[in-house]
């Protein structure tokens, strides 16, 4: 009896060791990847999804932030690479012009956006009247809003007629206020914005009708030269 009991105890211990060994092996084995079955009933491993490729956009996809879009367009024109984004720029200009004709509040109620939209639209050949700027007066602009004052001063430089009194008036008081800001800041280090103001006052962005006519003549010559290549 004692031999039978000892034999049973040994067998029980061996089975316990076998179970523990199997459990350890299961814990060490990696989990199988999720699988699916094809039409032949053979299990196949599901492919991992590929990471999305990054997309670089020059202009924001939202069409509501007109100020941001125009600012980016303005930078591209300043650094001379706007031709590489002709399609995107045309879309922004067309959209801005349609909102301008509707006198959209996002443009008209913000001084800086209104001034920049007028300047960029006119420089790109869109028919915008300076009468639309009649609501921009010295009293409507915060005296410490340097960026808006600078945009207004630039507006006065894109006059296409000697009789655009509104632009003359805007250029007069915005230039005076900008000069006052420069004088009050001379004792301190000029910020990048004030240095831009200083440059704009020393070298006007555009000089009324003559400069614009010169620009249009150059564009017309380039167009004629391009057409001659196909003759």
Which key terms come to mind for this protein?
mainly alpha, Glycosyltransferase, 9 helices, disordered N terminus, disordered C terminus, Terpene_synth_N_sf, magnesium ion binding
Please provide a written account of the structure.
There is one protein chain. Residues 1-10, 50-57 and 207-231 have low confidence and may be disordered. This protein has a single domain (66-229), classed as Glycosyltransferase (Alpha/alpha barrel), CATH 1.50.10.130. It is elongated, with a radius of gyration of 36 Å. The protein has helices spanning 2-28, 66-78, 86-101, 105-108, 111-123, 146-155, 165-185, 192-202, 208-228, and strands spanning 35-37, 43-45. The protein contains nine helices and two strands, in the order H-E-E-H-H-H-H-H-H-H-H. The N and C termini lie far apart (117 Å). The chain is mainly α. The protein has a two-stranded antiparallel sheet with strand order 1-2.
**What's the CATH C level?**
Mainly Alpha
Instruction: Determine the CATH topology.
Output: Glycosyltransferase
Gap from first CA to last CA: 117 Å
Can you name the CATH architecture?
Answer: Alpha/alpha barrel
Shape: elongated
Strand order of the largest sheet: 1-2
Region (Disordered): 22-41
Pfam families: Terpene_synth
Protein name: Terpene synthase N-terminal domain-containing protein
GO molecular function, one term: terpene synthase activity
């Amino acid at each position: 009896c004692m031999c039978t009991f000892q034999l049973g105890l040994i067998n029980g211990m061996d089975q316990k060791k076998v179970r523990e060994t199997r459990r350890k092996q299961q814990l060490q084995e990696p989990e199988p990847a999720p699988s699916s079955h094809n039409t032949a009933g053979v299990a196949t491993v599901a492919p991992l999804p590929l990471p999305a490729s990054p997309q670089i956009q020059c202009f924001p996809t939202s069409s509501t932030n007109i100020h941001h879009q125009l600012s980016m367009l303005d930078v591209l024109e300043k650094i001379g690479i706007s031709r590489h984004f002709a399609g995107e720029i045309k879309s922004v200009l067309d959209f801005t012009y349609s909102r301008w004709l509707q006198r959209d509040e996002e443009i008209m109620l913000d001084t800086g956006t209104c001034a920049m939209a007028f300047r960029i639209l006119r420089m790109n050949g869109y028919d915008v009247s300076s009468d639309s700027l009649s609501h921009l007066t010295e009293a409507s602009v915060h005296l410490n809003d340097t960026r808006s004052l600078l945009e207004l001063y630039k507006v006065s430089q894109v006059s296409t007629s000697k009789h655009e009194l509104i632009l003359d008036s805007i250029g007069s008081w915005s230039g005076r206020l900008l000069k006052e800001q420069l004088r009050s800041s001379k004792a301190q280090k000029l910020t990048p914005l004030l240095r831009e103001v200083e440059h704009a006052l020393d070298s006007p962005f555009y000089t009324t009708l003559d400069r614009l006519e010169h620009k249009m003549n150059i564009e017309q010559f380039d167009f004629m030269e391009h057409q001659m290549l196909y003759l």
